[in-house]
Amino acid sequence: MAIIQVPAVQTGGMTSLASGSIAASSTGFDLQNISSDYNELWLYITNYSMSETAHIQCRINNNTSSDYSHVYNAWSTSMTTAQGSTLIPMANSVNATQAGQSAWIRFPNYKNTTGYKHYQWAATNADNTLWCGNGFNRSTSAISRITVISSAGTYDSGTYQLWGVK
Amino acid sequence: MFIQEHNCETDKITVRELTAEEIAQREADQAAEVARIAAEAEAEAAEEAAKQQAFNDAVAAAVAAALAAQQTPATTAEPVVEETTPSTSEPTVEE
Asked: How far is A96 from chain B, CA to nearest CA, in Å?
């Protein structure tokens, strides 16, 4: 008798890999030694504020080379392309006095060691507008480090949570 | 200036001063950001100018088409000339 094998249903699920509060007066936070046991990474940054109107930016693996290319847009403006950027511009202008600013960024297939690394993000912007985009980093190394910084000034408050998705 | 490090393996959070190299990188980032914003503004202005030019061209084309339509005769058929045959009968004079 033939046995039909039914593949197990993938249960997926999200596992919190790190969470915390953004230290006041810091230039950002640096998530290191990220596990490579997952399929995707999601980073939530919630209710953050800055000491002055500035931009929230992100780097992977502390790569400061011109390896980031992305398309992004801010609200009603048309798509902007950037080839050979040195970081990911997650939001153009964060209003320091406005509570509730939030952002997320996703890194699918982050642990592969043969292909470039993709990322996708969205963030609230000044005046209640949205800033979002897609891009890739020209590195074949698995992502083990994500750094979120400010373009100017420092962070006043906020929380972050890094998720691993199976 | 300092940055917060979070080791995801050990869940240990530390705060440390930026190194000289990191400060230099931050300054470079800020300069690049200024250039990026300027380039964005320039691209946006160019796009607006292109839109305005396209609008102007469309208006000009519409005006030219309207003028051309006014100058063109309504029909290209040859005008019909009706010839009247003179009457051979004597005019009647009523007294």
From this structure: 18
Considering the entire predicted model, what is its pTM?
0.78
Chain B residues touching residue A82 (CB < 8 angstroms): 36
- Chains A, B: CB contacts within 8 A come to 74
Rounded (5°) CA angle A10-A14-A18: 150
Q: φ, ψ for residue A116 (rounded to 5)?
A: -65, 160
CB atoms within 10 A of CB A151: 26
Cβ of B5 within 8 Å of Cβ of A20? The answer is: no
**CA–CA separation, A4 and B68 (whole Å):** 77
Q: What is the pLDDT of residues B58-81, one digit of tens each?
A: 999 999 999 999 887 655 556 566
Residue A137: name the closest of A78, A76, A86, A72 by CA.
A86
Taking CA–CA distances from A28, the nearest residue in chain B reads B3
Locate tokens 């408050």: which residue? A157
Cross-strand pairs, B16 = B3
Name chain B contacts of A152, Cβ cutoff 8 Å. Answer: 30
Please report the ipTM that was assigned to this predicted complex.
0.89
Q: Do B13 and A20 touch (CB under 8 A)?
A: yes
For A27, the closest chain B residue by CA position comes to B3
pLDDT tens by residue, A39-96: 999 999 999 988 888 889 999 999 999 999 999 987 766 788 888 899 999 987 777 7
Asked if A137 and A16 count as a contact pair (C-beta separation under 8 A), the reply is no
